[in-house]
Write a structure and sequence with these properties.
This is Orotate phosphoribosyltransferase. It is a single chain. This protein is α+β, with helices and mostly antiparallel strands. The chain contains three helices and eight strands; from the N terminus they run ββααββββββα. It has one domain (about 1-125): START domain (Alpha-D-Glucose-1,6-Bisphosphate, Chain A, domain 4), CATH 3.30.530.
Length: about 130
C-alpha cells in the first residue's frame, strides 16, 4: 500500500529541514492533536500512540543529507516505511511524505483513511517546525 501526502513548501532551507527531521524528538511537534503517548527511546527511535490505536515504534532507517529521511516500523508485525522527500528551493523546501506498507487487503482497507489523515497532519505541521 502506497500513500503520498500533498507536496508542500516549507519556509526553511533543505539543510535546516533535514536537520530537524533527523532529530527524532522533533516528531512530537508533528504529531496530530489526538496523540496519547510520545516517548523518545534512543537518538534514532521513538514510540507514539494515537487515541484508540496501538503503540508504534519508529526508527530512523536511512537518511540522505538534505534530500531524504526514511523512518520505518521497528516491528515486523506491521512492516512499513515513512519517507520524507525534500527538494531544495533556495531558502524554502518542497516536502512530501510517502508511506509504504505491506498489509493484507483487509488491514489495508481499515488503515488507509487513518494513515492518509496522519501523514497529511505530519506534512502540514512541518511548515511550523
Amino acid at each position: 500500500m502506497n500513500i503520498e501526502s500533498p507536496k508542500i513548501t516549507v519556509p526553511k532551507s533543505a539543510e535546516e529541514l533535514y536537520t530537524l527531521l533527523t532529530d527524532i524528538k522533533n516528531f512530537e511537534k508533528l504529531m496530530p492533536d489526538n496523540i496519547s503517548k510520545f516517548e523518545v527511546l534512543s537518538d534514532k527511535r521513538f514510540l507514539f500512540a494515537l487515541k484508540g490505536m496501538p503503540e508504534i515504534v519508529l526508527e530512523l532507517k536511512e537518511s540522505t543529507p538534505h534530500s531524504k529521511v526514511v523512518l520505518g516500523a521497528a516491528s515486523d508485525k506491521l512492516p512499513f516505511t515513512l519517507t520524507a522527500n525534500l527538494d531544495a528551493l533556495g531558502e524554502q523546501t518542497d516536502a512530501q511524505l510517502q508511506f509504504e506498507g505491506s498489509f493484507n487487503p483487509m488491514m489495508a482497507m481499515m488503515v488507509k483513511g487513518p494513515i492518509t489523515n496522519f501523514i497529511g497532519t505530519l506534512v502540514e505541521k512541518m511548515k511550523n517546525l
